[in-house]
Amino acid sequence: MKQRKGVFLSLCAIFVIAAGIFIVSAVTSDSQQAKLSASAGQIAQERGLSPADISAALKTYVPTGKYDDYLMFSSGGHSGQVLVIGVPSMRLLKVIAAFTPEPWQGFATGAKESGDLLDGANMPLGTNRELRWADTHHPALSETNGDYDGQFLFINDKANARIAVIDLRDFETKQIIKSPNMISDHGSTFVTPNTEYVIEGSQYAAPIPFSDYAPIEQYQEKYRGLIGFYKFNRAKGRIDMASSFQIEIPPYWQDLCDAGKKVSEGWLFCGSLNTEMATGGFGDGKPPFEAGVSQKDMDYLHVVNWKKAEAVVAAGKAKMISGIKVIPLQTAIDEGLLYFIPEPKSPHGADVSPDGNYIVISGKLDTHATIFGFDKIQKAIANKTFEGKDVFGVPILDFNAVKAAQLEIGLGPLHTQFDDKGNAYTSVFIESTMAKWTLGEPYNSGEKAWKLVEKIPIHYNIGHLVCAEGDTVSPDGKYCVSLNKWAIDRFTPVGPLHPQNFQLIDISGEKMQLLYDMPIGIGEPHYVQMIKADKLNPWLVYPEVGFNTITMSVDPKAAKSGSEGIVRNGNNVDVYMTAIRSHFNPEHIKVKQGDNVKIHITSIERARDATHGFAIDGYNVNLSLEPGEASTVEFVADKPGVYPFYCTEFCSALHLEMAGYLLVEPNQ
Ligand code: CUK
Ligand code: CUA
């Protein structure tokens, strides 16, 4: 034992010394080098670091002032936000407010611009119920020719079927849509290879629209699923509902989707479960959902020809429902827009290979990755190689005719990503591993094709995984991150609600190497995309002073330096205010009880990172004013009294002096 420890320590020392020399050689003399290397070895020894720990540390450490090679855009889960994380350092860079008010960014905490965004996505149909949280699942970066272009990010809200559009010039949310007709989604968001459409599949079937009541006994006749294709106007940076459409589909629970690319461009593939059409009712003596939904060994992969669907809509064959064109199920069948493929068992992920030819399916209660060939699918459609129709009349392609391969990889496979060397990586939930395996032609041939290569243990219960640009037409390899559901014993305990765990894995070598654990303490992140950092080109300050961050142009109504002041019109009061280190102008806002007050504030700063906040005590207001930004606060001065306002960012030595008074004179 002792001897082994000795060998281990000397291994350690060699590693550390080699690494130490490498690191310090650029800046230090020989004697300094020797000293630093020796102390690095000592540190490793004192901290009980193994050679693997040391190599992992060297691969992830990003020194101060240096940047990460990749950025991950992660779902923030129940927080309703998006996390931006650097790779390989796993440093959290930002939490982008998407669906939930966020005071630091001034998102829907008094700023009219973002407040209107959220209110515009409240529950429709007269209830106007405020939605102030979301269950975000799948972020999707905008693509050009199937590759990330670094311009926009989309993310869904599974709980309420909403989609947020984030502009990556300023990393802010610009649009939130409440999807018409749909009440929950899951297979969302995904983009087509040139971001023509943002795709959303419903999950739990309901009548269309969901506000049309139908008893659960009428599930098969009245309940339906939907797949939405929302047209993205890139120039405007907005989804255009007038040019969007949905396709009515059977009331199965549609799950994850992926858009076809390259050879399969123009098609969409979505898994489904509950083709049993189980309706639950456990308390009423019926089989519970978990049993009812998993009775069959196969459910159906939905194969959708969206290019053709576009033409069907253009030909006027869709119906308007709740302000959007909907292709009826029968029309989708008649026009050859929708086919099914049997998929085993309790299917979850559906992922298209970089060349677009393979669709990888995983079943949560299966041990295989099942791979369908797009070429085979096309042939089966052309030759009508069907094994039957479902109860709604949708043709089911013959499983064996479209199967390219089936590969035993472990219990509970979920999602698959790809690298640049013809390998696929699948998360294996039940056994907590990530499996690496080889694709077939044209990536690998003969013996080398469709082979399980290696599995790495995960801690614990891996859900999605992400590899660098691993769902695009040109994956980068290098890194994968497993997005784990459980952390159990990985972190210092912080109570019964444990953080989630992101594990960074180096996939560049012969063997996969676990590098780093990053706790996520904000919600359950489902999916993440990882983009090369140099593809992003964000602004460092807003391009001009008086910038409206929703219109992304100078606001003609923005307050300007030199013309600050207060304008009264009856009981409407407009305040034109500027902010710069270290004062607001004006500093007194005198109004009467009951006045409608509008404060137009412009940050006239041009210095990078010189952000100001604007909070009004007791009026529930906090803005973030980035250099150049113009924002508006609107409220009724219904509470008389004296309310200080102040800057909430420590912006200068005289930051505490950056303040003023809102004086609300009472009515007699
Ligand atoms: S789902 Cu598969 S683990 Cu919402 Cu993409 Cu979470
Ligand atoms: Cu501006 Cu503190």
Can you offer a commentary on this structure?
With 668 residues, the protein is mainly β. It folds into three domains: 59 residues, no CATH class; 432 residues, Methylamine Dehydrogenase, Chain H (7 Propeller); 119 residues, Immunoglobulin-like (Sandwich). Helices cover 14% and strands 41% of the residues. The chain contains ten helices and 44 strands. Strands 33, 34, 35, 36, 37, 39 and 42 form a seven-stranded mixed beta sheet that branches. A six-stranded mixed beta sheet has the order 8-9-10-11-16-15. It has a five-stranded mixed beta sheet with strand order 38-44-43-40-41, with no helix packed on it. A hairpin with a 6-residue loop joins strand 30 and strand 31. Helix 1 crosses helix 2. The radius of gyration is 28 Å and the shape is globular. The N terminus is likely disordered. It binds [4Cu:2S] cluster (CUK) and dinuclear copper ion (CUA). Dinuclear copper ion binds next to loops.
Q: Which regions have little confidence, pLDDT < 50, spanning 5+ residues? A: 1-14, 16-26
Total helical elements: 10
Helix/strand structural class: mainly beta
Coarse morphology: globular
The CATH homologous superfamily of the largest domain corresponds to: YVTN repeat-like/Quinoprotein amine dehydrogenase
Main pleated-sheet profile: 7 strands, mixed
Q: Any idea of the CATH topology of the largest domain?
A: Methylamine Dehydrogenase, Chain H
Report the β-strand fraction as a percent range: 35-45%
What is the CATH-assigned architecture of the largest domain?
7 Propeller
Q: What's the gyration radius in Å?
A: 28 Å
The count of domains is 3
User: Oligomeric form of this entry?
Assistant: single chain
End-to-end CA span: 88 Å
Average of the residue pLDDT scores = 94
The count of strands amounts to 44
